Amino acid sequence: MTNKSECNGEAFRDILEANTYPKTTEKRWQFKEAEELILSAYGEFSPEIADCAQKFFKNGWIDASNVQGKYSGAFSHPTVPSHHPYILINWFGKTRDVMTLAHELGHGVHQILAAGRGALMCDTPLTLAETASVFGEMLTFQKILSQAQSPIERTQILTSKVEDMLNTVVRQIAFHRFETKIHDQRAHGELSLSQIQNIWIETQKESFGSSIALDNNYRSWWSYVSHFFHVPFTSLLKQSLQCFSFKLKCFFHVFELINKALYHRETFFPESFFGCIKV
């Protein structure tokens, strides 16, 4: 928050300003432009995956239009193994929408590739299902970053990603600590509203530190996190998958470097390097 304040020239301390971005002009994306970028990002990793993702655009399996009364959010629904999935998103042309589309396409590709296992085996636990989507999102993010035209645009892209990481990793860890403490104390008896609120404030202060001022109104904010009630302990899963996705992308990058090194030894590494790793 201190860095945000310096970038924007004004002080941020309120929780409502936690996701405030630096004052930059965000690029507006055409849907076709996003399609080309995502397929390129997927194709650089695997042409087979890109071909699979292209079917969603070619066959009209994506509902991206904004109409009154449409369901908010985004998802990829697998329907049944003998049929193709459908993707729903709400397209506003923001970079975040591009990332959301890439995320849902990761689900869609995974669902198509898993369909051959049949109705009893094609379904996946959330841990596996989110791996493909987050990985596809990361491929697209790196593609967007590589095409940044100016330092300001690059800063905006990186800042947005840092915000996502804070919400997906750091904040989710705080949510998990809240859930854990609630369940641990509930084992010894029913908790009052005040006790729940105290645990919430305690765990959130551990996360935000001194950067955010948490007032009394924030004591009830735990009640808006629906997965506390419907899918307990999903928070730990989200931050684990985000970290795993980074590690997976790094693994493939290192694997690519080793492949290049084996075929072009003198270009990438001195011969002594190969002696050290017994190659």
Write a brief caption for the model:
With 279 residues, this protein is mainly α. It is 61% helix and 3% strand. It is built from eleven helices and three strands, in the order H-H-H-E-E-E-H-H-H-H-H-H-H-H.
Report on this structure.
The protein has about 280 residues and is mostly helical. About 60% of the residues lie in helices and about 5% in strands. It has eleven helices and three strands. It has helices at about 1-10, 30-45, 45-60, 95-115, 125-145, 150-185, 195-210, 225-230, 235-265, 265-270, 270-275; strands at about 60-65, 75, 85-90. A three-stranded mixed β-sheet has the order 1-3-2, covered by helices on one side. The longest helix is centred in the middle third of the chain and has 36 residues, at about 150-185. The N and C termini lie far apart (about 50 Å). The model is unreliable at about 265-279 (pLDDT under 50).
Instruction: Report on the biggest sheet.
Output: 3 strands, mixed
How do the strands line up in the largest sheet? Answer: 1-3-2
Model regions low in confidence, pLDDT < 50 over at least 5 residues: 264-279
Structural Rg: 22 Å
Please indicate the percent range of residues in DSSP E strands (runs of 2 or more): under 5%
Approximate shape: globular
Give the rounded overall mean pLDDT: 80
Helix and strand sequence: HHHEEEHHHHHHHH
